[in-house]
Amino acid sequence: MTNYLATLPAFLTWFPVCAILLAGFAAIYIRVTPWAELRLIRAGNVAAAVSLAGALLGYSLVVASVMLHAVSRVDLIVWGIVGLVVQVAAFYVARLLLGDDLPHRMENGQLSSGIMLAATSLAAGVLNAATMAF
Questions:
Q1: Are 14 and 22 in contact (CB under 8 A)?
Q2: pTM
């Protein structure tokens, strides 16, 4: 008979590490952006919600890839931090491309800016995740 819960101990140790990495990324990303993301989202700003969702999904792809290829939890943490740096760098590249008035446009809920930031985060996350598979 197959033991369906045989991998539960691994799940109970790897998942929390991944959740902590994601929470750490979210906390850093929110501090890096020059607008108050959570306040804007609570106020119904769709651009801020789309942008943050893209960043979280992009980094989640990175963490998932790292978890699939990591040889230890330390390996997972180290490469998770590398992925975090790449994702934050992608934000700064997008900010340069979108112009100096990006914070103002995000605060005003300009959806096109939020979508572009989300797409940049997702693209960086996909590339980041793929390159970490080697």
A1: no
A2: 0.90
Tokens 């934050």 belong to residue = 88
Per-residue pLDDT tens for 27-41?
999 999 999 999 999
What angle, rounded to 10 degrees, do the helices at 46-69 and 73-98 form? 150
* Sequence-separated contacts (24+) of 43-48 with Cβ below 8 Å: 45/106, 45/107, 45/109, 46/109, 46/111, 46/114, 47/105, 47/106, 47/109, 47/110, 47/111, 47/112, 47/113, 47/114, 47/115, 48/106, 48/109, 48/114
Give residue limits of the domains in the chain: 11-131
Residue type, 86: V
Q: CA–CA separation, 54 vs 88, rounded Å? A: 12
Write the CB contacts of 41 (distance below 8 Å, at least 6 apart in sequence). Answer: 48, 49, 52
Confidence of residue 53 (pLDDT cuts 50, 70, 90): very high
31, HSE (Cβ side, Cα atoms, 13 Å): 6
